[in-house]
Design goal:
Blueprint (H helix, E strand, L loop, with lengths): L10 E2 L4 E4 L6 E6 L4 E4 L18 E3 L24 E6 L4 H13 L22 E2 L4 E8 L6 E7 L5 E6 L5 E5 L10 E2 L4 E6 L4 E6 L1
Antiparallel strand pairs: 1-4, 2-3, 3-6, 4-5, 7-10, 8-9, 9-14, 10-13, 11-12, 11-14
Length: 211
Amino acid sequence: MTVDNSNYHLSWINTGVSVYDGETGAGVSLCPQDSPLVSLGEPGEYKFGKRYEPKKPYVYLNLYNNHWRTNFAPWIGDGRRMSARVRLWAFDKFNSESALYSPAMEARVPLVAAGSRGKPGQLPATQAGLTLSRKGVAVTAFGPNPDGAGTVLRVWEQGGVSGELVIEGLKSATATPVNLRGEKIGEAVAIHNGRLAFNLHAYAPASYLLD
């Protein structure tokens, strides 16, 4: 927490929350699958301070409130009896990827299987998509370029680790680095045997326009 006058009493989380001992690193993580608004230390609704830092290892989930309504429904439910799912797990040593990000994403995006009784087609029974060389990196875009020709590939580092990332399974010949607006920020690099390698900074995005 390095910026004053930000609302640290309420946090809208994308993955989950970890609470752990600063000396041993052991603790507990949780992923609120249906209620992404949380408060740390104490209930934080209708509270604001120049600089708030929680003193107690408590996590409060905002399941419902009668203070405000919005045009989206994180607190309202579907008009019937509301339910909320929370995934909890413990760890011996905190690590952003293994103790928080990967288990939280497994809870939010579980494995899904489907079966069919139709006649088999021409596609193989199994086929790999993109393969990343390490965990803790999210693929946030892989599809047609909304600003022109080509395909946009965007990854976002979530585990706090800087270093080389290798993406395999690409069918393009070159990749041009672009910013989040799709503007070119570097020279095109060659993709060899479907393999693209580059340096990815901790907690940072990287975007490429594939030919």
